[in-house]
Amino acid sequence: MVYRIGLEEQSGTFFGVVVDKRDSVIFKTSGRNVEEVIKKISVTVQGSPESVDYIGISTDAINRAFSNLTIFPPIALIRIGASNNNFSYKSENYNFRSRKEPVIHTFFVRGMINLTGEDDIPLDISKVRDICEFLNDNKKIKAIGILGLFSNFFPRHEERVARELRKICKRKVPICLSSDISHRSLVYREGFLVSNLKLLSRISPHLIRLSDKIRPYIGNADIFLLKFDGSLIPSKLAVNYPVLLRDATQVSKIVGATTSTKIKNIYMLTQVYSKVGAMSTNESRPIVKRVWDSLRIESDSFTYSVSRLLNDNSSGIYAMLENIHKNGKSTIIMDKRLLGRFPKVERLGIFPMQLDGYLGALGAATAPIRSTTDFLGSIQFQGRKEVLERVKNVAEEKIVEKGASVSSIKVVQVDEIPVSYLPWDTLRIRITLEGKPGKT
């Protein structure tokens, strides 16, 4: 019998799910830590590591290990373009006003893919070798970021550099690509890429320790890592590690769901962190205004992330929520864990809802299926066609269990997407929750 295991951490509780080769759930459990959950699961899989096919690990399972970091090791940023000194624009730093900033080593590499996706300028392999020599000599660098022109349209623009680094470099430093960031602006992608790198530079040791704890129970099974965009990658490829913008870098995400006829716009507010320090009202006001202006954009689907916008001492959060509410077209869905910090938001008709941790663990177990539970209201799944309908039913069941007054849940989009790092064809669907405020 072949089993697959999924793990996820939510609000201090670890959830575990075991599914069989047909992706049917045969066991689910929870516990106070990873070891407790894995031991319970190991009994189910008859104590035989060889019977486990692979395991999926959600980044939530390790986020507490680095949620309060303020000191970061050096990082490297590789820029790819038409010349050795490209990107003449002024780079704005939207993120992180933390107590200590990392040293950023910046490199420029020639190599260009045009708008048709063809290779215009061959990649300068000699420059990549020079970068590898630098990385081999500088052991303190703990993460590498790759930023290329048009990379959000053509991910392989950055992927080929990452793979060359993997071939040449002796050190296996984690790599993060800007093409994973859901924004077309090069300036935004650079800012959030560096934000990811800060987090990534501290994730690796915890991820390795977590993998070491799990390995005795799964033998040689592959470990899949879940990236912040909901997609999966085998850890042995190690091109991208899982990164969530919402964690130690104090970045909160404001997400716009797909436009529907029943609800014009659904905005969601994810977790808020303020451990690094509070911004004054004067500091937060321009950021709030910039985000509010962005929210006015008529778009089917968009995502904005803002660093340290929301915190206990800033009036910006309430002002922004109030403005959105006065719009009259929006239903705001907030993670109910935030209600204690912002009690006034209840008067705005905010719909608090939180999905069960088992849903995320199920997404991890049924790779290449992943439920993006990092934001609530638009849930993305990526997986084989025959299991998508079952996942939709599971999602609906979990929402009903939470007592949410949901008018409907439906698949609004099914896209066929090429996934270069997985050995099978996948589909991606987005489930949009069209709901009304109700008891939770």
General description of the model:
This protein has 440 residues and is an alpha/beta fold. The chain folds into three domains: 3-57 and 354-435, no CATH class; 75-188, no CATH class; 251-334, no CATH class. Helices cover 28% and strands 26% of the residues. It has eight helices and 20 strands. It has helices at residues 34-44, 125-137, 156-168, 186-218, 281-295, 316-326, 357-365, 385-401, and strands at 3-10, 13-20, 25-31, 52-57, 75-81, 104-110, 112-113, 119-121, 144-148, 175-177, 222-226, 232-234, 251-256, 265-269, 302-307, 330-334, 351-352, 378-383, 406-417, 426-435. It has a six-stranded mixed beta sheet with strand order 3-2-1-4-11-12. Strands 15-13-14-16-17 form a five-stranded mixed beta sheet, covered by helices on one side. Strand 7 and strand 8 (119-121) form a beta hairpin. Helix 1 (34-44) packs across helix 4 (186-218) and helix 2 crosses helix 3. It starts with a strand and ends in a 5-residue tail after the last strand.
Describe this protein with a few key phrases.
440 residues, alpha/beta, 3 domains, six-stranded mixed beta sheet, five-stranded mixed beta sheet, 8 helices, 28% helix, elongated, disordered C terminus
